[in-house]
Amino acid sequence: MSATPTPAHAGSARQVGLDQLRRLRWAVRAVLVLGVAASIAANVLHARPNTISQMISAWPPLALLLTVELISRVPTNRRALAVLRLLAAALIAGIAAWVSYWHMAGVAARYGETDAGASYLLPVSVDGLVVVASISLVEITGRIRATTMAPSTAIPEASPSATPNKGREQPTASPAPPAITRSPTHQPAAARASDGEQPVRAANTEPVPTTGSGGDRTLRRPARADTRTAGGQPNHR
């Protein structure tokens, strides 16, 4: 049988899992920043050599990074708002991908990356990395939020043997019948004779005629009891 985890062990395991998710979120965020930085660098190199042009070229990837951070950190309670937010994020990601793709392709072609269509494939790798890192960051942040809001300890369920069933009446044990004890006087004569006791016969009564003023009355007097021993011989007293 597997041991049931105690609340202390469950809380420590939950804390360890939460720490791992937080470290993983920082790693995913670093990957996202790396992809956005590569896109920004390609946009800046493709822009004209002035500050305003470079800032305009760097804005689409930076806007995508801020959008992903907002979606991952701010939860929504209404489905309509969540759908609207996802549509806006998809629009921003599409604009950033389109602008960054052509800027990066131009920079790769300028610096000699033209063989086998390399100038057209390199932007795909960068944009794909940004998309994967953005989705992973949103998912990990949602897992961390769900783990943080979950109760630390679960209420243990009562076992059926500990909690009585109120819907059914519990059977009550019927009282045991009292034990019947026999007194020695109720034992049969054969049993008492085998134990060496002398059986006692009932005394016979004989009628005794009496006369008096009230008329003839007949009284009964007790006759001498005929007792016998265990061997069958009469016992005269």
Fold and architecture overview:
The protein has helices at residues 7-46, 51-73, 79-110, 118-149, 189-194; strands spanning 205-210, 217-222. The chain is elongated. 56% of the residues lie in helices and 5% in strands. It is built from five helices and two strands. The longest helix has 40 residues, at 7-46. The relative contact order is 0.10. It is mainly α. The model is unreliable at 153-160 and 212-216 (pLDDT under 50). The chain has a two-stranded antiparallel sheet with strand order 1-2. Helix 1 packs antiparallel against helix 4 and helix 2 runs antiparallel to helix 3 (79-110). A hairpin with a 6-residue loop joins strand 1 (205-210) and strand 2. The protein has a domain at 13-149.
- Rounded to the nearest angstrom, the distance between the terminal CA atoms is 83 Å
**Count of DSSP strands:** 2
How would a textbook summarize the main sheet? Answer: 2 strands, antiparallel
**Average residue pLDDT:** 75
Strand fraction band?
5-15%
Helix percent reads: 55-70%
Q: Which secondary-structure class do the elements indicate?
A: mainly alpha
Q: Note poorly predicted spans.
A: 153-160, 212-216
**Order of adjacent strands in the largest pleated sheet:** 1-2
- Tell me, briefly, the overall form: elongated
Radius of gyration: 54 Å
Order of helices and strands: HHHHHEE
Number of helical runs?
5
